[in-house]
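Deviation from plan, reported transparently: iron/sulfur cluster complex.
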Amino acid sequence: MIIAVASGKGGTGKTTVAASLAVVWERPLAVVDLDVEAPNLHLFLEPELTASETAFMEIPQVDASRCTRCRACVDLCQFKAISLLGDALMTFPEMCHGCGACMAVCPENAMRPGRRPLGAISWGHAGPIRFAMGRLKIGEAMSPPLIRRTRQKIEVLARTGAADIIMDAPPGVSCPAVNAVMAADVILLVTEPTPFGLFDLRLAVQAFDPLGSRLGVVVNRAGIGNRDVYRFCDQRGIDILAEIPFERDLAEVYARGGIIAQARPAIRERFRQLGRKLAANREPSTADHFKAVRHA
Ligand code: SF4
Ligand code: SF4
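Because the crystal trials were delayed, the predicted structure below was used instead.
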């Protein structure tokens, strides 16, 4: 089972929920931080990172001696990452999305695969939990390929232990977030009961509902704002799976880098119930598939 913890905007408590859910999960578990522009799940789970690797993206390199300046690649590239300036064919690696189409279309075989570093993937474990995280290189704008590679890494780690996966997704509803959640069985949307929270929750539902994953909501800071988030979920048939009260001591635990499910038995129990609700809807998924293949 793969659970993506996501939110329509930053600052809703997404990582708090991911960390708390992880420490009460009652099955083998692998956790991944896919918020590669600002990973911080490791600050809560404090994993021992035992390995890392650089993640690269394939980009085209032009062999000028073979290029006939036919423009096929220039006209094809939707990202303006190749230009013909006078007689010089120029590539702009930072604009390249690594689709490979220019290499496929070149009639002279004048494009060769090169690569540029995107960032690092680190992995290890936090107690019994397998853990991985991606960290985008400073100045790099292209996070989706790193997110996909980091996701592949946790899938490999989960496969070895037939573990479920909890993904801490990037905030928002743009390409990075969609890339992170698209493999999930359940997308857990963390929101708060305020007009801002409702606005971003609507966006998240619009963006993620077409992916076909089950959606559930966790209301953080419950008790503030109004009931519009609850009404919206009711109208859309989306279950509110847990509420986290707005209380000063929980905020203090978070500010100290603590995990709120470990702070108080009642909060721990809420997350345990959340985990059980998620597990009750369990369907065969990636981890089960791996297990079935391994035992076949
Ligand atoms: S790999 Fe794709 S995005 Fe990059 S230069 Fe070629 S066509 Fe453009
Ligand atoms: S498609 Fe190949 S031959 Fe044509 S301009 Fe691009 S690199 Fe040169």
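Residues 57-117 form a domain with the Alpha-Beta Plaits fold (CATH 3.30.70.20). We consider this an acceptable substitute for the interim report.
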